[in-house]
Amino acid sequence: KMEKNSRSKQISIIPKNAYGLRTDIQGNVHFTLKQEIIYPVAGVLAIHDFTTNKQKFLRFPQNCHPERIVLSPNRKFIAVVERNNDNKSMVNVYEIDTLRKRKTLQLPADCPNTQIGNICFTHDSRGVAVLSVEPDAFLSIFSFDKNDSLIIGRASNSSQQGQAVYLSCNPNDATIVAVGGYYMLKIMNRTDKGFGQIGTIKGDDLLITSMTWLSSDVLAAGTAETEIIFVESGELKIRQRADLIETVDLSGEGDTDLGATAAEVAERKHEVLCLTQFEKGFLYAIHNVVHVFERESNYNFRKKSIIRVPITLYDEPQYKIVNVAVNHEQDTIVVATLHSQLYIGMLIVPETLKISELVFQNLGEPLHISGIIGMAVCSWKPIVMTASRDLTIRVWNYETMKVELVKKYQIEIGVIALHPSGFFAAVGFIDLLRLLQIQLDDLKETKSFNLASCTQLEFSNQGHLLAAAHGKMITLICIFTFEVVQSLKGHNGSILSLAWSTDDAVLVSGGNDGAIYKWNVVTGERLEEVVQKGIHYRSIALTSDAHSVYSITNTGLIREVAKSDIAREFKIPELTPLTDMALARSDAILFVGSVKGHLYNVQVPLVDTSSGNCTNFRFFNTKVTKICITYDDCTLITAADDGTLIIWRILNNEGKTARQAPELGRCADVLIARQELIEKNESINTLEMRIQQQSMEFAYKMKQGDAFHSEQMRDIHKDYCAAIENLKKKNIEMEQAHTEEFNLITASIAQGKEDHQKEMMDFEAQFHEKIIMEYDKLTSMKNKMDAMREEYEVKLRRSAGCLQDTIESMEADQKRLLSEKQDIIDNLLKDMDRKRAEFDEYCRQVDVDNDRHKVELQLQYEKRLQEEEENSIKWRGEAGVLKKKFSTLSRESEAYRKEIETMQAQHGKFQQSIRQHQREIEALRKELAERDSTIRDKDRRVFELGKKNSELEKYKQVLSMKITELKAQIEPKEREIKEKKEFILEMEKKLEELQQNNKQLELQLQELRDKYVGIDLELRRERNRFRASKAQYQRLCGEIYNVSGLIQRPELLKRSVKELCHRYSNDKELQKSLALDEDVQNEFLRQREYLERMTKSAKQKASGQRKDGGESLKLKKENMELLAELNALRELLNEKQRDCTRMEALLGLSSKAI
């Protein structure tokens, strides 16, 4: 039980999300029936529901390398071409719903090359066509029926120029396959010997790059010279430029030759790829552009849209489209590009949108296109930062599964580290070490350090220190002051790994010199050390109590170092070189990765090799570069050398996670620059202003639309009345036409009855004649059959009697001869017995003469025996003659039997002829029955037509009733319409009165506005005058003050007063005032008095200035009163507009009434 509990609590992981795409596999994106996307990532096949962002995975078999993925036409099966370590190819067919393997196919042994080049499902998804690689490519069609039938034939020949690469099955016939490639294009059909070619096209001058069937007899193929050709029934139909084509017309004779020169062909660098047919049309890709054609008829297509992949971060060749997938509803397209990115777009633009060119959008998140070389996890935020060889740094949120930031640099990135707060990051470039701020959508440099080619960076757990390993030295930098705190020296090689203790008092380092050092951060002293030359410590981890150090080596070993000694050592299976490791904060979870893509969960603390526990999670197909465990010990993040990022959920970790510090919490803030915030606020304000403007424009358009709709309603009402009148006229015309048609039908029915009666009479007469003739023939045949039967019976009796007589006579003769021979033999036996008795008596009597008599008797007896033997031979000969006679008689009897059989065969033929005549008679009877049935049908039709006629008459009456009812309904409605028209006229009069009132109010408003403008101008003029007078007064006061300083010097005072008088006497305003007032001119003549009273005049001007200020206040008050009147007028105008809208609603002229 303890063992079971321990096993049940063993740490396990399941993939939550996988970010990546393999471009080394052909056909790397497909759509399922459930709107899910299938694509290969790492060592699995991902089935991604992009609406819910959920994934499920199908692992490829171990030690197998997938090369091509093909989806069946019914979207229920997927075939994967896989190659094992022995360089043998096979096809595994999986069921998408259950993710179970259904079949495994291999090329037959007859193929000279067992490697698979291309595959394609048949149109019914019940078979797979497989093309082997060159040279001598063979074509095989496997069927999924019970017999597992196979068709095999040669697709190309090594003696010919062409090479078979591409394959496409006919959409209607599973035995027709198109094969194309370099200088080759064939349409092949199944024959008795394998496959034969259809048509004359060979493609000797074509470099085929993709092809598909548009129908059962039309094939489209793209070339490497940016051309697309159409083949019909094996003959070249049309050849056109793929980038310039707008329509495709296959109904007539097309241009089979483009007439392009060699220079024009050389300029076309892009291939026509991913030719795909769907129910509404077809599409193809040229570099980063997809051209979509919609089907107008069976042989006509028109270009509907162009969809382009935007070129953003990388070079233009990286955006080449390598695969295309269309969903089952045929409204969405997904493409895969050369730089491992998926894009999604709208397939066909609706007619309502006048857009000819669309742009693809990223499907999911933007992915790395090269290996991930650096990864760091934040403690306070659910983010992880990755750096790749594609010169980009990305910030991922592993809770929302989104990429929050992408930044591309021009120089190579070596290593990265993320601050625990998530606000800062340290990035080691080739030339410098830079400290960056992580802002909302950018990485802004804060400080740079002259530390080139850093091999490892690590922030302390509290975030106040940064450890940077460069060369053979470790530099500790304070984040707050940017000063170097310590420099740790001691390694003799590159430093490959760093680890901080929980309290940031100890730093551990490991390098390729075989040394692990434990440093005191404050003093810089070396506390512990372990050195073993030839070992590379690629990654290390320090336990929470800083007692033990876990490390991995390039020899496949995991070591636990404590107190300057190797305490424990654990060997990974096969001793695969390890790349990275991650230890949870609880010291109870440990994961390591290897160069072969293995991800191991190692039980900690480490135990002996013999009893150690190690679980391998097979998911990757390339080297695992980085492994991290999040701060809560619940999520594992791994990165691979092909740019794949996998986020795992750790299971069975209850009791194996460390307690989180409550003071840390979770931070969700993001740094943003002040200027960016100001710009965003300004953009928000401008957008709000635009929205207000657009809402006002929309309201104005709505009003115009209401007026337009009211006019349309009037027109519709007129049209409705006219349509009712037309319907009345049409009803009358239809009634007249119905009566005429009914009369014609009755006449035609009567005529049909007469014709039918005549035909019936003729047919009955002909039928009776045929019956009489057939009866005569039948009687004659019967008489002949009776005569033949009698003759045959007589012959049989005769042959039977003769045969019986001959057999009986032969049997009697033979019996008689046998009895005679038997009597002779009996007599001879009796004589022999008698002679033997006599001889015995004679022997008894005469013993002396026994020999002599014996010899004589023997001689006599032998002679007699010879005679008897001769007699028996004669009898045997006679028996043989009798046997021959019997055999001849048997032969004759067999001949008679054969004659009897021939007679029986003739009898059978006669019976067959009789049956045939009986069948003819039955057929004639059937014809009669059919004729009777047709007569009944016609009678039934006549009866039905009569019924229909009666129904039409009833319908006519109903229509007449309805017409009367409609007339009765129309009259009150016409009265209502008249009343409403009168009401509308009254309302129009009222509306005109209101409009006149509005016009009067507008005139009054315009007068008030003009008055306001005039007053405003006068006010401005007065203000200008006031400013001028004030300035002049200030200047005059200053000059008077200067002149008053010369009061002790009368001559200078006199001269300056004269200059002052001349200067101000030339003033235009003053001249105008002098011209207007004669008293002022007299005062100017008395200059002395003027100078004496200058101060008084200045005082008068000051008092005038106060009066001017009072006048300006009066003008302001008048201005305020005018504004108040304007506001009141505006309110009145709004009320009038509301009254107008209410009147429009009552009249039915607004959209609300409609």
Fold and architecture overview:
Pfam families: WD40. Residues 778-845, 886-934, 977-1025, 1112-1146 form a coiled coil. The structure is a single chain. By secondary structure, the protein is an alpha+beta fold. Among the domains are: 18-70 and 79-102, no CATH class; 107-206; 245-250 and 267-365, Thrombin, subunit H, CATH 2.40.10; 372-651, Methylamine Dehydrogenase, Chain H (7 Propeller), CATH 2.130.10; 673-770. It is built from nine helices and 58 strands. Strands 22, 23, 24, 25, 26 and 30 form a six-stranded mixed beta sheet that branches. Strands 1-58-57-56 form a four-stranded antiparallel beta sheet, with no helix packed on it. The protein has a four-stranded antiparallel beta sheet with strand order 2-3-4-5, with no helix packed on it. β25 and β26 form a beta hairpin. The protein is flat, with a radius of gyration of 58 Å.
How are the SSEs placed, and which strands pair?
Elements: H1 2-8, E1 12-19, E2 30-31, E3 37-41, E4 44-49, E5 54-59, E6 64-71, E7 77-84, E8 89-95, E9 100-105, E10 116-121, E11 127-132, E12 138-143, E13 150-154, E14 163-169, E15 176-182, E16 184-190, E17 195-197, E18 208-213, E19 218-223, E20 227-232, E21 235-241, E22 247-249, H2 262-267, E23 272-278, E24 281-286, E25 289-295, E26 300-308, E27 321-326, E28 332-337, E29 342-346, E30 357-359, E31 361-362, E32 372-377, E33 383-388, E34 392-397, E35 402-408, E36 413-418, E37 424-429, E38 433-438, E39 443-449, E40 454-459, E41 465-470, E42 473-478, E43 484-489, E44 495-500, E45 506-511, E46 515-520, E47 526-531, E48 537-542, E49 549-553, E50 557-562, E51 565-571, E52 578-583, E53 590-594, E54 598-602, E55 614-618, E56 624-629, E57 635-640, E58 645-651, H3 674-845, H4 850-1044, H5 1050-1065, H6 1068-1076, H7 1078-1085, H8 1087-1092, H9 1094-1147
Helix pairs in contact: 3-4, 4-9, 6-7
